[in-house]
Amino acid sequence: MRYELYYWPNIQGRGEFVRLALEEADADYVDVARRAESSGMGMPALMRFMEEADVVHVPFAPPYLKAGDLIIGQTANILLFLGTRHGLAPDDEAGRLWTHQLQLTIADLVTEAHDTHHPVGSGLYYREQKPEALRRAADFREARLPKFFDYFETVLECNPDGDAHLVGNMLTYADLSLFQVIAGLRYAFPRAMRQLEPGYPLLVALHDRLAGRPRIKRYLNSARRLPFNNDDVFRHYKELDA
Q1: Residue 21 in contact with residue 173, Cβ under 8 Å?
Q2: 42-50: long-range contacts, CB 8 A cutoff, minimum separation 24
Q3: 150 part of a folded domain
Q4: Residues 123 and 191 occupy one common structural domain
Q5: What would the DSSP string read from start to end of 146-202?
Q6: Helix (H) or strand (E) holding 67
Q7: 63-99 residue pLDDT tens
Q8: Given 85, 108, 134, which residue is the final one in a domain?
Q9: What's the rounded Cα separation, in Å, for the pair 47 and 41?
Q10: Interstrand relation of 3-6 and 64-67 (parallel, antiparallel or unpaired)
Q11: CATH number (domain holding residue 74)
Q12: How far is Cα 144 from Cα 138, in angstroms, rounded to an integer?
């Protein structure tokens, strides 16, 4: 089966969590909006798909994945589906639910990182909410980010099967997503991350191991991996990293 991933073409965004799972699984997929319009894809195909989707099951917003007759929306939901199909989640129900729970917690962290630069509204420019962003970013750096990192470091530390993975002794999509979060936070908050990372050696080690996995390394070095930029979820504004 060839998967079709529908997401915005110029940012990593929440679609990147899906891409990492597809790349690690060596799955056959097409990133629809990044393809040439002359091929019938590109942004027109993304917009057309949103307009023509079954109104009963239409996703709220990209990313969404087309797998045969299935249309799956929401990043965590897509990863739950892919993890089960491609060995990136445990076989047992308890393990699958635990992995999904971790992914939902990662989604909370991603939302809070995004809201540092858009604390009032996504429809407003950053410059229109800069005073609120300064306050929100300070709270994120000083309170919220350490709280999330404490949690995930403890999950690794308390894993009865060792501290190499979040779940058991296998690589899961939650590991891949945590890798992406750390990479994104290093871009958005380099100063804060330099200060925090020595206190979280297991998280840093997880990131570094995943960056060295053959398929992930190949992807990171390819043109398919877009660079972080300030139209994305993780944005770098020097004043927010003060």
Answers
A1: yes
A2: 42/9, 43/9, 46/6, 46/7, 46/8, 46/9, 49/6, 50/6
A3: yes
A4: yes
A5: HHHHHHHHHHHHH-TT-TTSSSTTS--HHHHHHHHHHHHHHHH-HHHHHHHGGG-HH
A6: strand 64-67
A7: 999 999 888 999 999 999 999 999 999 999 999 999 9
A8: 85
A9: 10
A10: antiparallel
A11: 3.40.30.10
A12: 9
Mind listing the pLDDT tens digit for each residue in 101-141? 999 999 999 999 999 999 999 899 999 999 999 999 999 99
Whether residue 222 lies inside any domain: the answer is no
Count of domains for the chain = 2
CATH of the domain at 148: 1.20.1050.10
| Burial group, residue 9, by CB count within 10 angstroms (0-12, 13-18, 19+) | middle
**Which residues form the domain of 207?**
93-214
Token pair belonging to 228: 């972080």
Distance CA(158)–CA(126), nearest Å, equals 39
